[in-house]
Specification:
143 residues, alpha+beta, VC0802-like, 2 domains
Length: 143
């Protein structure tokens, strides 16, 4: 049930991110979430997109180094304390989280969060048991 996250290694230079986003836009790939971390020489761009196959092909054809990672997507209420509740569920179930980032939704009542955890299956089970709705690639494609 996990989401597919694309991780693209990007040169840390002016225009590099524009080239990637232009390539995706040209091929009608819509970015639903992104996170970028940089070092002196390169950046790590993490993406959730509406069409993984097209994104992988077009960016690969352009010579980008891309990895696919399974991550957990969770829908949380857009109010104070809801993110903390989801994180507490992971903590109480001894699930280590490596990173997280939020992404755009088309509702004012919910926020969507991408979680990279040590054990996706355990995280999904714990979050569902606690009443959280998980997000799938099919859900992202509909946004």
């Amino acid at each position: 049930m996990s989401l597919k996250q694309l991780t693209v290694f990007v040169e840390n230079k002016q225009g590099a991110l524009v080239a990637i986003t232009d390539t995706l836009a040209t091929h009608n790939v819509n970015i639903r979430a992104l996170s970028i971390a940089d070092t002196r020489d390169f950046g790590i761009l993490r993406l959730i997109v509406n069409d993984n196959a097209t994104a992988l092909k077009t960016l690969g054809d352009e010579g980008y180094l891309i990895n696919t990672t399974d991550v957990v997507g969770v829908k949380i209420g857009d109010e104070p304390g809801k993110l903390s509740k989801a994180l507490q569920v992971l903590d109480e179930n001894n699930i280590n989280m490596e990173y997280l980032y939020a992404f755009m939704s088309r509702t004012e009542k919910h926020a969507y969060v991408v979680l990279r955890v040590a054990d996706n299956a355990a995280a999904e089970q714990a979050l569902e048991k606690a009443g959280f709705h998980l997000i799938t690639d099919a859900d992202v494609a509909k946004l």
